[in-house]
Known about the structure:
Elements: H1 7-23, H2 29-47, E1 60-65, E2 75-81, E3 85-90, E4 93-96, H3 103-109, H4 115-119, E5 140-145, E6 151-155, H5 157-160, H6 165-172, H7 178-191, E7 200-206, E8 209-213, H8 230-256, E9 259-264, E10 271-276, E11 288-296, H9 302-309, E12 313-314, H10 317-339
Antiparallel strand pairs: 1-2, 2-5, 3-4, 3-6, 6-7, 7-8, 9-10, 9-12, 10-11
Amino acid sequence: MGGHNAGEVASALAIDSMKRAAVGGFSSQESVVAGVNAANAAIHAASGGQSDQRGMGTTLAAVIPLPAHGDEPQRMVVTNVGDSRVYLWRAGELKQVSVDHSYVQELLSEGLVTAEEARVHPRRNIVTRALGIEGDVNADVWVVPMLVGDRYVVCSDGLVDEVDDAELAGIVGGNHSAQTVAQQLVDAANSNGGRDNITVVVVDVADDTIAVESPATIPSDVSTKPRASRKRKVLAAAAVVVLLSLGLGVTSWWARDGYFVGFNGSGDDAELVVFKGQPRQVLWFSPTVRVRTGVARSEVFPALANDIDEQPTYSSLARAQAFVLSIRDVVAAQASDSSD
């Protein structure tokens, strides 16, 4: 993280920790989260030993393939902490999979600024999460079906601060190799100003294998009496009513807070949706449907459907919506292929 001590040390520790976790293999999204947590712990521990490393931190963005299950396609885990991003190019369309953990992203999610205003906001580089700053970290994780022809772009903010989504899509969608595209993105960012370190990795899914290319870039440093009078009893009763009212108010707020993904209904016809509220009903407060996809459970790969049965929760509607829409896109692509 720029402006913090020893950002390059934090970055190197994160990479080494994730490499060690990869040796044992990532078999599930939980194992990926465990790897990220281990990286955070390593950086946080190191930052307490030397004064020149105190407060160091780094952002993280990663794409990690999970093992295939039978005839089902492999799945890709996308995870991020901070404002480094992951994009997916699929079927001629570029989508941002990750969601920035930044001050400006929170303004954008609340509708307080536009996307154009966010790009030039003076506080756009303030991150709200990073590895190593606290003893615990909350990484966002998405599980996306992996299809031949997918192209992932993993990048630091040094790229996206200089290259807008339209230009990014034009380069990523070009008929060039992953290596060439990665270099073109770095060149475009430098041509547009290059005011920060630029790190880009391009990952292509081709012929059921993973090919990874990255240009030579500068590593991004990321930076009580027994008997009471009647009056007291009345006051006590009033206090209980007030506390009960407050408790119900807090319960009501908590029951309706947050978002989760699940199936609305039962059986194969249950629809994939985003709910607002808690996965389990609290008192008489039930979750409500916020995003519908039109995707039936029968259209979702069984392993992914089992993951959705766990009703993963999200801190924002944008993150939950991005997850379900990525599944909808895969279902639509498969339907198109089968009709050809």
